[in-house]
From TrEMBL:
<feature type="domain" description="Rieske">
    <location>
        <begin position="7"/>
        <end position="111"/>
    </location>
</feature>
<dbReference type="GO" id="GO:0051537">
    <property type="term" value="F:2 iron, 2 sulfur cluster binding"/>
</dbReference>
<keyword id="KW-0560">Oxidoreductase</keyword>
<dbReference type="GO" id="GO:0004497">
    <property type="term" value="F:monooxygenase activity"/>
</dbReference>
<dbReference type="InterPro" id="IPR017941">
    <property type="entry name" value="Rieske_2Fe-2S"/>
</dbReference>
<dbReference type="InterPro" id="IPR036922">
    <property type="entry name" value="Rieske_2Fe-2S_sf"/>
</dbReference>
<keyword id="KW-0411">Iron-sulfur</keyword>
<dbReference type="InterPro" id="IPR015881">
    <property type="entry name" value="ARHD_Rieske_2Fe_2S"/>
</dbReference>
<dbReference type="GO" id="GO:0016705">
    <property type="term" value="F:oxidoreductase activity, acting on paired donors, with incorporation or reduction of molecular oxygen"/>
</dbReference>
<keyword id="KW-0408">Iron</keyword>
<protein>
    <recommendedName>
        <fullName>Rieske domain-containing protein</fullName>
    </recommendedName>
</protein>
<dbReference type="InterPro" id="IPR044043">
    <property type="entry name" value="VanA_C_cat"/>
</dbReference>
<keyword id="KW-0001">2Fe-2S</keyword>
<dbReference type="Pfam" id="PF19112">
    <property type="entry name" value="VanA_C"/>
</dbReference>
<dbReference type="GO" id="GO:0005506">
    <property type="term" value="F:iron ion binding"/>
</dbReference>
<keyword id="KW-0479">Metal-binding</keyword>
<dbReference type="InterPro" id="IPR050584">
    <property type="entry name" value="Cholesterol_7-desaturase"/>
</dbReference>
Length: 345
């Protein structure tokens, strides 16, 4: 089940340059390109003339040019030129492709996928620390062979850390999760708990010193339908944020754009260590999440057994059901080259 009427990350902004870039969102191919002012635009990656991929073309006069017959589409998806036409021949009214509103934020390209008027849309999931000079950011991407709901739920799971991440940051000696409250947000959920701190290695040994707290406080925030922010307070003013922005490519493939933002080791010299640690944690999750069946989390209450520590995941499943019941669900069986929802107007 895909969901419309939300913002989705589709690419690292640095990858969208002079040449068009093809991405897939909820089974639909979309072409991204920059105009002469550097603004990013998004059009359906299928020419209405003969179905060729527009991403195989180029940008000319701020239009995306189809490589097959040279049809030129502007940022709103309207065809502005057909080279084979004479000056007297009009461009057909139907010569237009769907377009999508795009925003460049946090080093990512976001598309609004749905048909809500702009005034009714949810806000972009926030990460104000990205532009704060007191914080240092590194980011990347990784692809999972599973449904986006499993990846999202994994990112908001308190109880898995002592086991899945016993080789990185999880304290296997203390897996207890005290009961916690789940706060309902306008477009998501938030919860907080404390963990026993594990013995850190490498340059993170700083956090093992005598005056460092023996516990860490972790706050997880979900922004529907698949963005998760995890903030960990290590004590003594040291804070660390993991931001997982998930792209549903198709029913069995998810791309996660991950960002880690920190208030310590803020020089570039520590970025390599942060990347290595982040990728190790991701691979630990990936080994487990890709084995889960069914690949999409079941939305009925009886297919899987729940306990108190699963309160966030239960809340997530409730929100997915609510979105489905609002009519925002999109069937995953539709062909990838079929327009799934109306484009932004």
């Amino acid at each position: 089940m895909f969901l419309k009427n939300y913002w989705y990350p589709v690419a690292l902004a640095q990858k969208v340059g002079d040449r068009p870039l093809s991405v897939t969102l909820c089974g639909e191919a979309i072409a991204l390109y920059r105009d002469s002012a550097g603004q990013i635009h998004a059009l359906s990656d299928r020419c209405v003339h003969r179905g060729a991929a527009l991403s195989g073309g180029w940008v000319e006069n701020d239009c995306l040019v189809c490589p097959y017959h040279g049809w030129q589409y502007d940022a709103q998806g309207h065809c502005r030129k057909i080279p084979a036409n004479t000056e007297q021949q009009r461009i057909p009214f139907a010569a237009k492709v769907p377009h999508y509103d795009a925003i460049e934020r946090y080093g990512l390209v976001w598309l609004f996928y749905g048909d809500l008027p702009e005034a009714d849309r949810p806000p972009l999931p926030p990460l104000p620390e990205y532009d704060d000079p007191a914080w240092r950011t590194v980011q990347g991407e990784v692809t999972y062979t599973t449904h986006y709901t499993r990846v999202t739920e994994n990112l908001m799971d308190f109880a898995h850390a002592p086991f899945t991440h016993s080789g990185s940051f999880g304290a296997a000696s203390d897996p207890l999760i005290e009961p916690y409250k789940v706060e309902q947000l306008p477009d998501g959920l938030r919860a907080q708990t404390q963990f026993t701190k594990s013995a850190y290695r490498g340059i993170w040994k700083l956090f093992n010193r005598g005056d460092a707290p023996r516990t860490v406080t972790t706050t997880i925030t979900l922004y529907m339908p698949c963005i998760v922010r995890t903030e960990t307070d290590l004590g003594n003013g040291f804070r660390f944020i993991g931001y997982g922005a998930n792209l549903p490519i198709d029913a069995e493939t998810t791309k996660t754009f991950w960002l880690t933002v920190r208030t310590f080791f803020t020089g570039a010299w520590a970025d390599g260590d942060t990347v290595r640690r982040s990728l190790k944690i991701i691979e630990e999750d990936k080994r487990i999440v890709e084995t889960q069946r069914p690949k999409m989390i079941p939305l009925d209450d009886r297919s899987e057994t729940h306990v108190a520590a699963d309160a966030l995941q239960i809340g997530y499943r409730n929100l997915l059901r609510q979105a489905r019941d609002r009519g925002w669900a999109i069937a995953e069986s539709q062909p990838a080259d079929q327009e799934l929802v109306p484009a932004a107007k």
